[in-house]
Amino acid sequence: MFAMTRRAVQGAFYLVSGVAAAATAAPPPAAAPSPFMSLLQVLFGLAVVLGAIVGLAWLFKRVSGGMLGASNRLKVVSGTMVGPKERVVIVELEGEWLVLGVTPQQVNLLSKLPRPEGAEQEAAPAAEPFARWLKAAMEKGRNGKAGRQ
């Protein structure tokens, strides 16, 4: 009797687990999209990304006021410190020299001068480019480590 009850319980358990498994079984897979639709989806995504890049570039140019390409029109000819945080700077803009007083709070136009005839065409770079300085510092650091070993 005990064995029959045990088999009945096992049978009921198997029956319930089979019904539960059938109820939770995954539905049949949906049909794969056609290659044309996949290609169309990829092209649409690419167009959206490229449109966003062009739109952001236009917006950046609009916000910056077109000053990205204007750096070659403006040259710092000379400058000197006249105080702890004050400078007098000569800037060349379209053939005219502007003498500027520069403080941490503001920039004042002190004078406008025509470009002198004897002035050199290209202003010398004010400082060594950062990339060259960084390369020299890295080589110096490597040579220092090699000497210690």
From TrEMBL:
State the superkingdom: Bacteria
Secretion signal, residue range per the UniProt entry = 1-22
Keywords, A to Z?
Answer: Bacterial flagellum, Cell membrane, Cell projection, Cilium, Flagellum, Membrane, Signal, Transmembrane, Transmembrane helix
InterPro entries registered for this protein in UniProt? Flagellar_biosynth_FliO (IPR022781), FliO/MopB (IPR052205)
TM ranges are 35-60
Q: Where in the cell is it found?
A: Cell membrane; Bacterial flagellum basal body
What protein family does this chain belong to? Belongs to the FliO/MopB family.
PANTHER family from the xrefs?
FLAGELLAR PROTEIN FLIO
Return the protein name.
Flagellar protein
